C-alpha cells in the first residue's frame, strides 16, 4: 500500500515538472523590441518534397502568425484560418483529415523540428526557417 502511494506521488510530481518545463520551453523567445527586425524564411513543401513556395524577408515581429499574415498575399491562407490559428489550407492546397488511410495535415516545423505550439503562440529568432509540409498518414 505504501509503495503504491509513493509511486503515485512520484508520478504526479513528474507530470507537474513536465508541464512546467513544456510551458517554459514555449516562451524562450520574447517579442521583438520596437524598431528591431529579424530575417526569417517561410517554405511550403508538397507531399512529394517539392518546394511550392519559399519566402525570405525581414520582419518587425517574431510571432509566426504575424509572419504568415504579412505573407498572405503569397500563402493564400483563408482569413478564418488565420483568425483561429488552425491552418488547413496553404497556397490553395487544403489538407483533408479523412478516414484512416486518407489523412492529410500541414506539418509545422521551425528549423526542421516540429513546433511545440501552434502558429498563434510560436515565435522565431533571426535566421530561423518556418516550414509547412503537406503530410499524409493514417
Please characterize this protein's 3D structure.
The chain has 138 residues and is of the alpha+beta class. The chain has 2 domains: 30 residues; 106 residues, Ferric Hydroxamate Uptake Protein, Chain A, domain 1. Helices cover 30% and strands 29% of the residues. Strands 2-1-7-5-6 form a 5-stranded mixed β-sheet, with helices on one face. Strand 1 and strand 2 form a beta hairpin. The chain is globular, with a radius of gyration of 19 Å. The termini are far apart. 16% of the residues are buried. About 11% of the residues have low confidence.
What is the CATH fold-level name of the largest domain? Ferric Hydroxamate Uptake Protein, Chain A, domain 1
How would you spell out the order of helices and strands?
HEEHHHEEEEE
Number of helices: 4
- Strand order, main sheet: write it out: 2-1-7-5-6
* Tally of separate domains: 2
Assembly status: single chain
